[in-house]
Design brief:
9 strands; Butyryl-CoA Dehydrogenase, subunit A, domain 2; single chain; binds flavin-adenine dinucleotide; 3-stranded mixed beta sheet; alpha+beta; Butyryl-Coa Dehydrogenase, subunit A, domain 1; 4-stranded antiparallel beta sheet; 14% strand
Amino acid sequence: MTYFAPEPDHITQIRSQIQKYVRKHLPRERRLALDRDATWDRDLFRGIAEMGLIGLTIPEAYGGAGQDIVAATAVIEELCQVGTSLAGPYIHAAFYGGMNLSENGSEAQKQAFLPRLARGELFLCYGLSEPNVGGDLASVETRANRDGDDIIINGAKRWCTGADWSDYIYCLVRSGPKGERYKNLSFLLIPTDTPGITMQPIEHSNLRYTRSMDVYFDNVRLPADAVVGGPDNWNKGWETLAGRALDVEKIEITAVAFGIARAAVDEAWSYAQTREQFGKPISQHQAIRHKLSTARTKLQAARHMLYHGAWLADTGQPCSVETSMAKLFVADTGVEIAMACQQVMGAYGLSDAYDMERHVRDLLSMPIVGGSSDMQRNNLASLMRL
Ligand SMILES: Cc1cc2nc3c(=O)[nH]c(=O)nc-3n(C[C@H](O)[C@H](O)[C@H](O)COP(=O)(O)OP(=O)(O)OC[C@H]3O[C@@H](n4cnc5c(N)ncnc54)[C@H](O)[C@@H]3O)c2cc1C
């Protein structure tokens, strides 16, 4: 196992390219406005696509830059320094789309989707959760039935984030009788403009690069080649979910938690050096020094877990345990970091004069989304045969 290595030059260059771009185009007022409106800026995102960064999850044969999971992780970390308004759409294109279809798509789907995803022309959203289904994905109720060469879909998805602007829903459905768990499930690629689909927004306070949606399917008809991996993958949904793409999915959401936690520590650190109380910068008061030193230490531990998981996934090594541990540790530690940093900034950590209140809102969601901390604990206990 490699324990320590300098960051490869190309990743350091990507970081500095992104930093220059967001510094120029996403000043604080713009970040605040996007968060208030729960939206993102397509023109601004085009610049990220033009840097070739979406292609970091897509093989060169399909128009990508070649899979480089460590570099794609660093992209998310850097984009998160200004919130989720660029990191969110990046994940929809590079991970929900590029990574999943590179791993699980049929040859025809790879050729049709991956080059367009790499160019930033196509976005996918996730249709996993339902009104009665959260962590227990094996119990999804949205039905897909075969009708000759077609598939008919009925049911509802909840928290389908970005369904109102995404092109396709990467959707988990029940495609046979509800009997044995993990059986009779399929993944479908459902175009969001198919007749029979309606949507209703859900208001929420975190990850406001977009709104999340309730999506309803009323006799939605699709051809059988909408099955992810092709018609032969009918009823193989759990196998599709549980592969390498899931390990990388855990890394991707961990990168969001880490990126936002880093932004929170940086903001509180510099605030503490300029805010004076009792005749000196508050960074000279021991309670503040301890909070910030502890936050940086936790951040460093989080960094090691995140990039170790990313490196294992990138080099094709088994990493279900390490990626679950990283998701669990970084999401939970991110909340502790957020709480400490907000306290350092006193009232200003609650006001919209700084990014801190947004960092806190976003970090609070990290132990819930992308497989909750409790679900990671359950997975780890099973994986390690407790
Ligand atoms: C902003 C936002 C965006 C989202 N975007 C998407 C999206 O794009 N697509 C999508 O499909 N979903 C999305 N989600 C949904 C998210 O994935 C779910 O919230 C998550 O899976 C948890 O489900 P739940 O909230 O229904 O909690 P539940 O599953 O109802 O769990 C409630 C609590 O009980 C705990 N719990 C449940 N079962 C167990 C158990 N067996 N052992 C121990 N503890 C347990 C959980 O950890 C949690 O603390 C989003 C959510 C939010 C807030």
